[in-house]
Amino acid sequence: MEIQRSQMRISISDNGAGIPELDRERLFEPNFTTKSSGMGLGLAITKSILENYGGEISFQSTAGETTFFVDLPLSRN
Length: 77
What we know:
The chain is an alpha+beta fold. It is built from 2 helices and 3 strands, in the order E-H-H-E-E. It has a single domain, classed as Heat Shock Protein 90 (2-Layer Sandwich), CATH 3.30.565. It has a 3-stranded antiparallel β-sheet with strand order 1-3-2, with helices on one face.
């Protein structure tokens, strides 16, 4: 029996301090940054591109580890 999958998942993890609760809701908003430099556009642009291709980006974060998940369809309808 062949298993058919309709999407793939890429996960990227780090072992930093984690994303504070107060920042989580705004993380994908344009111009939101916690850094002293940068424009705060990277995650907003990434999210927009992924959604245009039928994908999505999400994350889980705890103290000591943050993982981003990128889900992409294997074919576009």
